[in-house]
Amino acid sequence: MYLSAQHVRSLEGAEGLNAFHFSHGAYIWEGLPPQGIPDQDPGMLVAQSITVTPPGNLVRAYLDIVTPDETPWNEIRPAFITFVSEAQGTPLPWIGVVGRCLFRLGMDRGVAAQWQRELADLYRATMAVRVGG
Amino acid sequence: MIGAAKRYSELLTKLLVDRELAGGSLPEEIESHYVEELDRCWWAMTSAEQDEFERTARVEHAVTAPTSLDEEDVTLLDGARTMPRRAA
Questions:
Q1: Chain-chain contact of B16 with A116 (C-beta, under 8 angstroms)
Q2: Model-level pTM?
């Protein structure tokens, strides 16, 4: 499963969060995701939430979560908090694996001034778009 | 920063992020757990480490980021198997 939330800005200046849920079905792994996931193989898009219509919007921030489809939120959330606490203090973008969850977080400088609020908004957007909760 | 000081910094970030994810506040028992652990780490630090933490905390809780990500989003239809963004 690949969940992605993107904070985007249109050419007209409209800003919002778009989120995507890709599924890998019954394909299960432990630790690092198999090579190519998500960049060459994001899975199959099964749901999306669009507030600013693509294409061509500038991506100002993103949160990517890659983990087997079955992974519950009560496993993802503590892994995410650990990822952030370990990455904080290093320059963005942050990339890390905790357990069987891969996280990637990027922000531009303007958004990063409020990075804790931003990452929480992105995280909630991934929760909302996930089919089946 | 090593040992208790590093642990203290990580715990503080965890607390702040956990609060944000919860919408601004945590249940009292979770907040208390963090505070107890932070307190334990604080008193395990040397006075020099405590001074150093207080001096640098504001800087360390800021993050360094690029001026632009140089990426744009793309239109996807249900069933798509491509990434939702690409290099601009």
A1: yes
A2: 0.89
What mean pLDDT value characterizes chain A? 94
Q: Which residue has the tokens 């983990």?
A: A67
Distance between CA atoms of A4 and A79, rounded to whole angstroms? Answer: 16
Task: Return the number of other C-beta atoms located less than 10 Å from residue B3's C-beta.
Answer: 12
- Give me the residue from A55, A88, A108 closest to B74, CB to CB: A55
**Residue B85: partners with Cβ closer than 8 Å, 6 or more residues away:** A4, A6, A59, A62, B71, B72, B73, B74
Write out pLDDT tens, residues B65-84.
999 999 999 999 999 999 99
The closest of A111, A114, A116, A110 to A81, measured between CA atoms, is A116
Least CB–CB distance from B68: residue in A57, A108, A123: A108
ipTM of this complex: 0.92
B81 and A45 within 8 Å at the Cβ level: the answer is yes
